[in-house]
Every structure is written in structure tokens, then in C-alpha cells.
Design a protein that fits this description.
The structure holds three protein chains of three kinds. Chain A is an alpha/beta fold. Chain A contains 18 helices and 14 strands. In chain A, the strands form two sheets. Chain A has an eleven-stranded mixed sheet with strand order 10-9-8-7-6-5-4-11-12-13-14. A three-stranded antiparallel sheet of chain A has the order 1-2-3, sandwiched between helices. In chain A, helix 10 packs parallel to helix 15 and helix 15 runs antiparallel to helix 16. Chain B contains 23 helices and 19 strands. Classes of the chains: A alpha/beta, B alpha/beta, C alpha+beta.
């Protein structure tokens, strides 16, 4: 099929063994057709019967999701108390060797930010004061966490708001801190890479000792509480084949609400540690088996780029008005390190916290973050409105390769399988995944656009 | 209603069991309800106008007089309902089979066939076959995704009563059973509605036990179920235990009990329990329940009280002394001596910026050819850069605990080196472990400040007098770091400055210390920590070590002028270094295993209470007659023993796969 | 020395904390900033609690000291804390 020049192609088709999965994501319509039918669909003639009905549905011009406009309506206030961490995860460049800044947020400024988000929620009609802690390891800065937690709860109570406190954490701290979090927070994303051998290899202390015992203990405390617990697994070649068993164990012993799967981003550090991203097909197969196991336990297995309930413009908080305050009082929309974006020619800064005046956001910067361009390859991809281009930094435009990289391939395989399962075609999806040639044909197809349908629309 | 537990033993081991009974894990000895108590219980039911005797356990059919009890209850005019797992002795099954069908029913806590061992399933099947529609099935939901379809299959297959009684696996207050978390209720609610629809399609009705809440169902679901009182069923059930005590219900068994002999009727009993629990119920409502519309309308009482109570905390804590507590004074700025680690100048510039005014000096060992330090030579790639450009005062560490030759032979070269470092790099002081060497340096360079190292082992006033005129600053011996009274005495005896080393963490008065430092200074190939074996046998000794946590520094501020951080090796990672330093300077809490202490320091994240610090800094270390540290350690270990589920983690074979 | 009373337990609620003394059968709802005082006292010495409360409630240090001291006094009177003979 010829590549489309349209920036928002409406209809896509990907090969599934000897059939074709046609999909119009904005209409939320999908169908399974053979080659002959596909040729007709991509041709100019009028169609009748079932094929005509399908063509009509595919063509009916669903609207792209609206981009945010106007005043910021943050999904949360992000706080980075510092970039420090008490672990030495081999794939993480936060706080290692001087790459990340070492400063620490002034608690008084954190309090100002909390007050601002409370006032802002009231002004914009939101009913929740939501704060998400990031790091490094946010709970290393325990003083700030305690102060912010209590301030947020006090402010929310005084303004009649609900409070939602959440953090992404490594789980390595004394038990009394874990209990404080369990009592006062609403949700936790806990990094837990599976069985002890791999977890300890991925996520050791600075002295090389593993962190598994502490993380497991913390996970148990969280499991016994009312916290919404999400366990996040970093997947490498080392643990990719164990995902179903890891999930079974997680679901049995820790009973999370969600399990997130992220494949490792290859960096100098991870390479030096001998860690590699998993092969996309191998990951897809293992993840999908793991997802099935999780389903049996009522736990949601989550691959961030997978099919979403609704089409979306952004895969992450960027573009959703997230305001994230760094220790040096910059406000940005991405929690990654500033040099990382700058290396991609991006500016994710939205403004600054000015003492006494709260968060001062630049509307132009906000609008720019809401409308970051996608790489051209994304416009040709059927996963475009779910994956939404993936990470805006690691898949930036310009900067991202035009080829379908590992992330793209595994996303396409997983999403196609999810679509097929929703259509009651689980057996077909399983056969496709088992057939390496067929799977890679789908994963690597350079363009999925069904050109003629667009022209008629 | 009231339930009569005939026995506390059971022949299954259901993980959700909130009766706290199973074979091999019975709490205390086996207890069977005596005949006299059974009759007294029936008397109570009669007085209360209750027409049904509900028999449960454990597994009630295992009571040796089960058949007789059924007969007695029937003879006295009661209907009998038995709550069982359907795996019962032949005599029990026969008694139920022969009883009038309209007056005896069996509620079976059902499991899927594959969840039974084959022999057990055969017994269950036999029970179903012989009792038929006198059997109703019950199911306790203990997970987010309950699989209940087998219930309908069993009802149809065996002709059982077209009724399923659903219960939630509530937590026992004392723990030990697998229970459903309230946060999972909405997920369960969705599954129940799906099941209810399937049940209705085959003519099976649903009943709900206690603890369900309206908010776990969608509005459509609530309308469909048509159970407006669903949320009001957490009430005293009145369970009679085999020992003759009444409890409100099994999950709350430990909260309050009433004796059978002291009860007039069930209504009075219910009043007593309600009076006990009402306050608690109000106090322990889930946050979501406080403003809930269902509760406001009286349609829900807030779910299972036991689940609510599990949120309560009762850790014992001490409020620090209110009279002249050292922490109430404004913290004085105490300068720090910190170790050199091999980092570029930017690292030190950053520290100087971040901790301006807090760092007195950075101490570093000279090259080995000047004098050994008692340690292998550490990395020195950036040392030249550090010496020339670091914006912090620098100090030489001359820490050899024994000299390689008589002092008169060693001293000249050392003094020459000290002069060179002073003249070329601006080195401002030195720390010395050997008093003889210190005396010679003082003679040769009388204005050059000297510090007596911790390795000089000064812990008594007479020793402090020996330093007079030689050393300007003293680092007290590690054996006294935790002894506030002894430190005060030493301070009074020494006219110079006291510098406290806060994280060396050696065991107080360690008898292996000298040999260990000798081995390190003497070029032994692998100088290991000689205390390892001792500490493996007596791990509590780590709690007596020479370490002070940052959050407890206020206790020491009045007795020292400076503080020192160790860690040339343990804090070699710049991130950890910075973090530990920041914690100490800002008095931010750390656990003992986080402070970068030596090999004898605590290895586990032990919570160190204020009480522990207070006592062990004043106890005078009379360890021969005191078990405080040992007890503290043992108590901490046992309270943090892995949860049963963690102990029983059975890592699949894949977990042992060799790493690539 | 002041310690938590043996029969004292507490539950964190959305807008504060509820203190329960099961022996006296009393329960008290504590709102902010005193709710923060209680929680922080379980882990920190008074001076540290004062510093944090000053930040949490935007109080001057003296006022924060007053709030903390007053809360402790009240909880002693209510039986959630109790004074014991000092140790050592």
C-alpha cells in the first residue's frame, strides 16, 4: 500500500496470517477480511452487502480526541523532592555519577505548590487535590513527604476537596514509613522486577546488595492496606520469559490492582550492566500470557501503549497538563531530566514556582506541550491513537528513527492481539503470535494506511 | 439467629477461614461443645423465640456426638441447619439423610471439584447425591476475581437446592486468614452481577451474607438485585463457641465475649454486643463512608467492622521529654570532618555550595609511601585536582595504628611530607593515631593543628591529660560513643575540642580491633573483619556499636564541638555519600543500615526508637546484667518476621534460571 | 516521660485522625493541624514535630510550639497519652 501523506489517516490494515485486520480507531470499528476483500476496500468501487456495511462503518469519520486548550487543568501536581535515590538500579541514570542534580526541594516551596494546586482545583471545578511524587526515590526525602502529605490533606479538607496522593517508589525504606504511606496515600506504583535473582541484579543497593527483601516486605504492607497498588516490572532479556510466573506470584501474594510492564530503554548504564531489552516478539508473547494470568486473578495487566478505552493524544502525563515541580522550582510537564529532553531539542518547561505567587505557567509553553508533533511513522501506524507516539522524549520528533523500533514492534503485536481478542478471535491471535514470520510481517509493516478509504472520506 | 459451634476442628484448610480452625492449626487444644452446654444453648434459643438451631464449627459433623445433637435439636422442635464442607463421617451423613427432609438443611461452603483432593471430592459428591435438594451451596469470596460458575453446575448436576449464599471473606482481627480487601469490592461487585445473571437464567436465587455494601455494585446492579437492606447486615450474629462463650461473629472474636450462662436471651446478647461496638463503628468508618449517601439514608452501616478495625494502629511510642529536651533548643551548627572519596572537583564544589558553613574539613590519607593508614590504598585519580581546587579545608589522615619502624626513624619523613602538603596544597591540619608520632610533629611544627584519632583509643580522663599540648582536638574512642555520661567526663578533662565520629559503628571495645588494624596496616593479603563470626552468633551486638543516627544527634550537641563522618570505603558512592552527609547535617532520619557504617554496623532496617537511644546512651553498658539490646533486637526480628505468605513463596523452577 | 497509653489506637481518616481509647471507651476526632501533630509524634521528637508543624500549618515557630504543647496536654488529659516516671 502506498504511504499516505495525510497526517491523520482514518483507516488502517495490518496482516494477520492470511487475513487482514482493518481498523478505524477514531470510529472504534475493526473488521477481519481476506485479501480480496481488502483490495475491494482499498479500491474505488462502491461496495454492498457485509463488505459495504463494513466500509460504511470504517468511513464514518470519527472525531479525533480534542486537545486541551486554555487554562491548565492538571491531572496532578507532580513533586520531585530531589533526584536522589537510595538504590543503584543498573538501568537508571538518576543521581548516578553526578548526572542528575543533587539539590533538594525547600519544604516551604513544596507547601506553596500544594496550596496552589488546591486553589487551582477549586477555580477549575475539579473535586480532587491530586499530588504525585517522583524522584529519584521520593521517599528518601522523608521530611518533605511528611510535610506535603499533611499539608495536602489539611488543604483538601478545608476546601472540601478529595485528596489523592500517589507516588512512584522503589519500596526500600523502614516499615514505619511504609505504614505511613499505606495510611495516608491513595495509590502507589512500586517498582518490583520479579523474582529475587533478577530483581536484585536490576535494582541493588549502592553496595551491591539486593533490595528484594525490603521491597517484598513493603509490597506486603501495601497489599494489606487500602492503597491501590500497582507493581511495575522492568522487563529485560533476563526476566522476559518469566512474566507469566511472576504475575501469578504477584497476584497470589501481593494482590495488586495493576501490574505495569515496561521494557528497558537501552542506555550506556544498562549496556554496561549487561542488560538488554527483550526481543519484541518474545516480550509480546510473554506479556500476553502474563496478561491472561492476571485476568484470572482480576488484576489488570498494563502495557502503556496498548489499546485504550478511548483514542488519545498522549501516552503519558505530557500533553495532559501535568505540572511537575523540580527541586530548583522549575515547573515542567515531563519528569525526566532536563538534559534528556534538551538532547532531543525539546523544552518541557512550563514555568516556575515564584515564592508568594505560586506556579507561574507560560501559556505558550503549555500549548506547545499539548501539541507536540508525532514522528511521521506514527501517522502511518494503526496503533497511533492508543500508543499516541509513546514517550515524547524517547520517541521525539525530530530525533526518533523512522524505522519501527522494538517499542513500535511490540506495541503493534500487543495491540493487534488485543483487538483480535475483543473481536472474539483469540485463537487467530494466538496462531499469529506463534508464527514468527506472520508476527514480524505485522510488526514491521512500514505503513498501515488504507489510502483509498481516506480519499473517499 | 444464633450459631452453635460444635467443635473447633476441621478437616480442610481453607485460606480464608475466619473461624480460625483447621486440623493441625487449632488455636489451643481441641474443643468440642459439651452436651450440657448444647442443651443450655437450645434453652437460650427457645427463650429467644428462635426456631432454628444452626450448627457450625470448624466442621460440625466431626463432633463425636453430632448425630445425637441433631436428634436432640429435632426432638426439641427446632429445625436444624448445618454449615459444613460436606466431607463428613458416614454416621453424620446418615443422621442427616434419615432426618425429616423439611426440617434439616445443609449449607455447604463449596469448592470447585479441581480444588478438592480426589478422596475429598468423592465424599462431597456422596453428600450431594444422598442429600440432594436439602443441600444449598455457599461461597466465600476472597479474591478480586471469584470463579463461581461451578456452583451452578453442581446445583444442576446434583439436583441441589436452587439457592446460593454468597459471603465475603472477612478478616480476623488477629490476622491469619486470607480476606477480601474493601478496595477490591467494586471488582467483586461486577463479577457478582455477572454471576447473578447466569444464576437467574437457570432459576437459582442468590442470598447475601453480612458485610456487603451497596457501593460495590453499580446503580443498575443495585436495582437489579433489589436488596435494599444489603448494607445493613453487619450486626451481631451471635456465635456460641465450644467453650461456652458467645462472640459477636468470628472476625471480631477477640474483641468481646459473653458467657452463655449469663445471658437471658438473644436480644439481650445482641444489645450487649451492639453497645460495645457502636462507638467503634463510628470511629472506624472508611473515609469514603463518612459522606456516603447510602449511609446518610440509613441503607448502609459502613461494611464489615473487622475490615474497618484493621485500619487502626496502636504502636507504642514515646513523646520525648518535655523538660529541657535537647531537641527543643535551636540546633547549633556543628562543623563536620568528612572523608575524601575519589571524585572530581565539581563534587566538592557542589558540597561546599550545598553545605556552606557546615564542613570543617575533608580528611584524606597521603600516599602509602608517606605512611600507611591501616587500609589498602584507595583510588586517587582525582586527588591532585582535589588538593589544588577543592574549596574546602583539607586535612591529612596519618592513621597507622602501629608504625612500621621505631618512631624516630619514621617521623622525619612523615614530618617532611606534612610540611610539603602544607606548603604546596595548603593542608591545614592532620589526624594522628600514634601519640609518639604526634609528639614529634608537634615539636617540629608547633602551630600545625593536630587531632587525636579514634584509633588512639582515648576514653579516660588520664589519657586525655596525655594529649595536653600535643593534640588540639580529640576523637573519643569508639567504645564511648554511645555513653553520654562518659563523654561528659572526658569533655571536662580535655581542654581542646571534642570531635565525635558518628558512624564508625565498631562494636564497643571490640577485642579484635587492634589485630584487625594491624593486619590492614601490615599488608596482609585479605584482611577481613575479625568480628564476623561473633556477630553471626550474636547479631544483637550490632545494636551496641559506635553509631549515632542523624535524628538523634541533638543528644550529643552539648558535649562535642565537631562531628566526623567515616566512610572512605562505605560511602565511596557519591550519591550515597551526599545523602548520608545531608542527613547528618540536616538531622534527617536514617536507619542504622543506611549510615555507611563499618562491617559491624546493623545490617537491617531496624527502627531505633527514642526510648532505645535514651536508655542506651545512659546505661553505662552493663551488658553482663542487662538484656535490653538483645530483647530489642529479638523483638524487632520477631515482629518483622516474614509474613506467612512470604515465607511460603514457592519460586517456580524458572526463578533459578542461570543469568545470561 | 510521656508515652502513648496502652489502650490507645488510632485510625487515619480523610480529614484527620480518630483516637480511640478502648479502656475508657472514648473516641475523639482530631482535625488538622493537631492530626499532623499526633501522627508526627509517633515517629519524631517534639522539636522535630514542632518544626514540621510550623511548615505544615504555616505557623511561626512559637505558635507551632504552642499548638504542639497544647495538643500533648489535651491528649494526656483525655487519656490517649500518659505521663510516666522518667527513665534514667
Amino acid at each position: 500500500m502506498a504511504a499516505s501523506t495525510t497526517t491523520d489517516a482514518a483507516v488502517f490494515a495490518v496482516p494477520v496470517l492470511d487475513q487482514w485486520l482493518v481498523y478505524a480507531p477514531l470510529n472504534e470499528v475493526a473488521g477481519l477480511v481476506n485479501g480480496a476483500a481488502l483490495r475491494k476496500l482499498s479500491g474505488a468501487q462502491t461496495l454492498d452487502g457485509k463488505l459495504g456495511d463494513l466500509a460504511e462503518s470504517l468511513r464514518s469519520n470519527g472525531a479525533a480526541p480534542r486537545r486541551r486548550q486554555g487554562v491548565a487543568r492538571p491531572i496532578f501536581l507532580g513533586l520531585i523532592p530531589s533526584r536522589l535515590c537510595n538504590l543503584h538500579c543498573v538501568y537508571c541514570n538518576f543521581g548516578v555519577g553526578g548526572e542528575a542534580p543533587k539539590d533538594r526541594m525547600d519544604p516551604a516551596m513544596a507547601v506553596e505548590a500544594v496550596d496552589w494546586i488546591g486553589r487551582h482545583a477549586v477555580e477549575t471545578g475539579d473535586d480532587t487535590l491530586a499530588i504525585h511524587f517522583f524522584g529519584g526515590e521520593p521517599f528518601v526525602e522523608w521530611d518533605i513527604v511528611e510535610i506535603v502529605t499533611h499539608r495536602a490533606r489539611a488543604v483538601a479538607a478545608s476546601l472540601g476537596l478529595k485528596v489523592h496522593l500517589e507516588a512512584s517508589s522503589n519500596g526500600v525504606y523502614p516499615e514505619e514509613r511504609a505504614r505511613f504511606i499505606a495510611d495516608h496515600f491513595q495509590a502507589i506504583v512500586l517498582s518490583f522486577d520479579g523474582f529475587p535473582e533478577v530483581h536484585d541484579r536490576h535494582r541493588p543497593h549502592a553496595d551491591g546488595k539486593g533490595s528484594f527483601p525490603e521491597v517484598a516486605r513493603t509490597a506486603k504492607i501495601f497489599s494489606d492496606s487500602q492503597l491501590e497498588l500497582c507493581l511495575r516490572i522492568c522487563v529485560t532479556e533476563q526476566n522476559v520469559d518469566d512474566l507469566p510466573e511472576i504475575v501469578r506470584w504477584f497476584c497470589t501474594d501481593f494482590r495488586p490492582a495493576y501490574i505495569d510492564f515496561e521494557t528497558i530503554y537501552e542506555t550506556d548504564l544498562s549496556t554496561k550492566a549487561g542488560l538488554k531489552p527483550p526481543d519484541p516478539l518474545r516480550f509480546s508473547r510473554s506479556y500476553l500470557q502474563a496478561r491472561e494470568v492476571a485476568n484470572q486473578f482480576g488484576v489488570v495487566a498494563n502495557y502503556a501503549a496498548d489499546l485504550q478505552q478511548r483514542p488519545r493524544n498522549s501516552f503519558c502525563p505530557v500533553g495532559q497538563d501535568a505540572v511537575i515541580l523540580t527541586p530548583d522550582l522549575r515547573v515542567s510537564t515531563c519528569y525526566l531530566l532536563e538534559p534528556d529532553w534538551q538532547a532531543r531539542g525539546l523544552d518541557m518547561n512550563l514555568g516556575r514556582l515564584e515564592p508568594g505567587r505560586g506556579l507561574q505557567l507560560n501559556q505558550e509553553a503549555l500549548d506547545r506541550a499539548r501539541n507536540l508533533p508525532l514522528p511521521p511513522k506514527c501517522h502511518r501506524c494503526f496503533a497511533r491513537w492508543s500508543c499516541a507516539g509513546g514517550c515524547k522524549v524517547n520517541h521525539s520528533h525530530p530525533g526518533c528513527t523512522d524505522e519501527l523500533d522494538d517499542f513500535c514492534q511490540q506495541t503493534r503485536l500487543i495491540m493487534a492481539t488485543t483487538l483480535l481478542e475483543k473481536m472474539g478471535q483469540s485463537a487467530l491471535a494466538a496462531r499469529m503470535l506463534d508464527d514468527e514470520a506472520a508476527a514480524m510481517a505485522l510488526a514491521k509493516q512500514p505503513t498501515d494506511v488504507l489510502t483509498t478509504m481516506e480519499m473517499r472520506a | 439467629m444464633a450459631n452453635l459451634a460444635l467443635t473447633n476442628v476441621c478437616n480442610l484448610d481453607c485460606p480464608y477461614c475466619f473461624a480460625g480452625s483447621n486440623v493441625g492449626h487449632v488455636e489451643g487444644p481441641r474443643q468440642d461443645l459439651s452436651e450440657s452446654k448444647f442443651e443450655a444453648a437450645l434453652d437460650l434459643l427457645e427463650r429467644s423465640g428462635i426456631a432454628e438451631a444452626r450448627l457450625l464449627g470448624g466442621e460440625p459433623t466431626l463432633h463425636p456426638r453430632f448425630a445425637h445433637f441433631v436428634e436432640r435439636a429435632l426432638t426439641r422442635g427446632f429445625r436444624v441447619a448445618v454449615f459444613s464442607n460436606a466431607i463428613m463421617p458416614e454416621s453424620a451423613l446418615r443422621s442427616l439423610e434419615e432426618a425429616p427432609a423439611e426440617r434439616v438443611s445443609l449449607l455447604v461452603n463449596a469448592r470447585a471439584e479441581q480444588d478438592h483432593q480426589p478422596a475429598q471430592w468423592e465424599k462431597v459428591r456422596e453428600t450431594y447425591r444422598r442429600l440432594g435438594n436439602r443441600v444449598a451451596l455457599g461461597y466465600n469470596i476472597d479474591s478480586r476475581a471469584p470463579r463461581m460458575d461451578f456452583l451452578l453446575d453442581h446445583i444442576v448436576r446434583f439436583g441441589l437446592s436452587p439457592l446460593v449464599r454468597l459471603g465475603l471473606a472477612h478478616p480476623r482481627l488477629e490476622g491469619g486468614n486470607r480476606s477480601l480487601r474493601p478496595r477490591d469490592y467494586p471488582s467483586v461487585g461486577g463479577r457478582i452481577l455477572e454471576f447473578a445473571e447466569a444464576a437467574r437464567a437457570v432459576g437459582v436465587a442468590l442470598e447475601f451474607d453480612c458485610g456487603f455494601v451497596p457501593c460495590m455494585f453499580s446503580q443498575t446492579g443495585r436495582e437489579w438485585l433489589q436488596m435494599p437492606d444489603l448494607g445493613r447486615r453487619c450486626n451481631p450474629i451471635l456465635d456460641l463457641l465450644p467453650n461456652g462463650e458467645f462472640i459477636s461473629c468470628y472476625p471480631l472474636a477477640t474483641l468481646h465475649r459473653e458467657k452463655l450462662t449469663q445471658i437471658v436471651d438473644a436480644a439481650e446478647l445482641r444489645r450487649r454486643f451492639t453497645a460495645q461496638f457502636d462507638d467503634l463503628r463510628q470511629a472506624t468508618l472508611y473515609p469514603e463512608c463518612v459522606q456516603c449517601e447510602f449511609r446518610a439514608r440509613g441503607e448502609c452501616t459502613g461494611g464489615c467492622l473487622s475490615a474497618s478495625l484493621l485500619r487502626s494502629r496502636s504502636t507504642t511510642f514515646t513523646v520525648s521529654e518535655r523538660r529541657q529536651a535537647p531537641e527543643q533548643k535551636p540546633a547549633k551548627i556543628i562543623p563536620w570532618a568528612i572523608p575524601y572519596i575519589d571524585q572530581p572537583a565539581e563534587f566538592w564544589q557542589d558540597l561546599a555550595r550545598s553545605f556552606d558553613g557546615h564542613i570543617r574539613e575533608v580528611y584524606f590519607p597521603p600516599p602509602l609511601e608517606v605512611l600507611g593508614t591501616g587500609r589498602p590504598e584507595q583510588p586517587s585519580r582525582f586527588r591532585e585536582e582535589f588538593l589544588r581546587h577543592a574549596p574546602l579545608a583539607r586535612s591529612l589522615l596519618l592513621n597507622a595504628i602501629t608504625l612500621p619502624a621505631p618512631v624516630e626513624q619514621v617521623a622525619p619523613a612523615v614530618i617532611e611530607a606534612v610540611r610539603r602538603y602544607r606548603d604546596e596544597y595548603g593542608i591545614e591540619s592532620a589526624t594522628v593515631a600514634n601519640l609518639s608520632l604526634a609528639e614529634r610533629i608537634r615539636d617540629a611544627m608547633p602551630e600545625f593543628p593536630l587531632t587525636a584519632s579514634i584509633l588512639m583509643d582515648i576514653f579516660q580522663p588520664n589519657q586525655a591529660l596525655m594529649l595536653k599540648g600535643v593534640c588540639d582536638t580529640l576523637v573519643p574512642a569508639s567504645r564511648m560513643v554511645r555513653d553520654l555520661n562518659a563523654l561528659k567526663v572526658l569533655r571536662a578533662a580535655f581542654p581542646g575540642r571534642i570531635r565525635l565520629l558518628v558512624n564508625e559503628a565498631c562494636v564497643s571495645g571490640c577485642p579484635y580491633r587492634v589485630e584487625h588494624f594491624h593486619e590492614m596496616a601490615s599488608g596482609f593479603e585479605d584482611p577481613r573483619s575479625l568480628c564476623d563470626d561473633l556477630l553471626a552468633r550474636e547479631p544483637w551486638l550490632r545494636l551496641t556499636g559506635s553509631w549515632i543516627l542523624p535524628q538523634h544527634l541533638p543528644y550529643y550537641e552539648d558535649i562535642c564541638d565537631e562531628m566526623k563522618l567515616a566512610g572512605r570505603v562505605t560511602l565511596h558512592d557519591p550519591v550515597k555519600y551526599r545523602r548520608v552527609l545531608a542527613a547528618y547535617i540536616r538531622r534527617q532520619p536514617l536507619a542504622p543500615h543506611e549510615i555507611g557504617g563499618g562491617p559491624a554496623s546493623p545490617l537491617e532496617p531496624i527502627d531505633i526508637s527514642e526510648e532505645f537511644v535514651y536508655r542506651t546512651s545512659r546505661c553505662g553498658q552493663t551488658c553482663h546484667s542487662c538484656s535490653f539490646c538483645r530483647d530489642y533486637y529479638d523483638s524487632w526480628r520477631s515482629s518483622r518476621a516474614p509474613y506467612p505468605q512470604l515465607v511460603q513463596i514457592r519460586l517456580p523452577a524458572a526463578a533459578g534460571r542461570a543469568m545470561a | 516521660m510521656i508515652r502513648s497509653a496502652p489502650d490507645t489506637s488510632w485510625i487515619v481518616q480523610a480529614d484527620g485522625v480518630v483516637l480511640v481509647n478502648s479502656r475508657r471507651r472514648t473516641a475523639v476526632v482530631v482535625r488538622y493541624p493537631e492530626a499532623a501533630v499526633w501522627d508526627l509524634l509517633t515517629r519524631h521528637p517534639v522539636a522535630e514535630v514542632t518544626r514540621k508543624v510550623a511548615c505544615i500549618a504555616s505557623l511561626e515557630r512559637e505558635e507551632a510550639e504552642r499548638v504542639v504543647r497544647s495538643a500533648i496536654d489535651q491528649w494526656v488529659a483525655q487519656g490517649f497519652l500518659r505521663e510516666e516516671a522518667g527513665g534514667g
